[in-house]
What we know:
The protein has helices at about 1-10, 10-30, 30-35, 35-55, 60-65, 65-75, 80-85, 90-105, 110-120, 125-140, 145-165, 170-190, 200-210, 220-245, 260-265, 275-290, 315-330, 345, 350-370, 370-380, 390-405, 410-415; strands at about 295, 300. The protein contains 22 helices and two strands. It is mainly α.
Amino acid sequence: MFYIYIVMMKKQNIGLILGILLFVIILTFGNSVTANHKITLTLAITVLMAVWWITEAIPLAVTSLLPLVLFPFFGISNGKDVSTSYVNDVIFLFMGGFMIALTMQKWNLHRRIALKIMMFTGVSPGKVIAGFMLATAFLSMWISNTATAMMMLPIAISILNEFEKIFTKKDFKKYSIALLLSIAYSASIGGIATLVGTPPNLVFTKIMNISFPNAPEISFGQWMFFALPLSVFMLISLWVLMYFLLFRRIKSQKTFSTNIFSTQYLQLGKFSYEERIVSIGFVLFALLLLFRVDIKMFNFTIPGWSNILSNPKYINDGTIAIAISILFFIIPAKEKNINILDWKTANKLPWQIIILFGGGFALAKGFVSSGLSLWIGELIENSVFENPFFNILLITSVMIFLTEVTSNTATTQILLP
């Protein structure tokens, strides 16, 4: 009877009760393990937030606000210090980058870029998959992975409608799986390549800064020079994997009309004034971020443009993202009483993710100030997994499992500190 009652309860209700229960248990018995009351308090709050994030017992953003209340209440951190975690340069980089992405979507520039790439790659079945992968990965470097996948799906469906006419039913099913999976995976792979590609990247840079304040800054350019080759390698590996698992088994290797992409491209009309302005702003945004600080490559250094300023360290990636966004708000469109970017469009910002960022950053600060991060580090150092390889394997396995059932960003916020 009790089992039936548990099954009938909603996951959210179970998570709500479980989180509070674990919170109370750790508060009651935790001191005997940690030998430090402040560490016990921070651990209890972390477990509470982790359970509520994973089960979504309450909205993710609401859970993210808990440090703002619990840290000052339990004497872990000053309320004024905690609140600064919710407004910082990383959050403004995300806001600015997302507003630029929304501007591209407003004027349909992202669709034009995608179709242009696919026109370039070709129309044979293998080249179509490669084209979709390239277009999806490139766009997801700058636009939300989810938004990119959603934008590519209607184009993919129109292509599949054409392939249905020339493939057998069995081959069409295999090809559909290959194409749609390629879009989904390419969106994630592209998100790795830049700091603004996906929220966990930004979470990492900020928590790294909080945990190791004296460590060198990880700039947009440094991240991209590290991550872009990795993304390219993963993209090629994905195409090879799709080819051998699915595409190679398709017997009817036919093509369809070469003008299918160009027809859709022509439907977009002429390259408009607004698209031209957004393109210039987007390229400027990328170049300013990429070359803001010195980039060291092998035995030479590419000097950053910020060096010409009297205080180059005053400029960060968030400054640039907001500056380009403000320009879009200022520049008028050809349509009467409309600017390139307006608040109606900008208000589509995912505010819940922005608050989620803040909650994770506050949690990271709590880890450092309470000594919890040091305590966990010592536990790992003295554990059976002394070999770094096994530690990485364990953390990666846990991360992969958790992100199957909960938000990537929320899971990153939990594990990184």
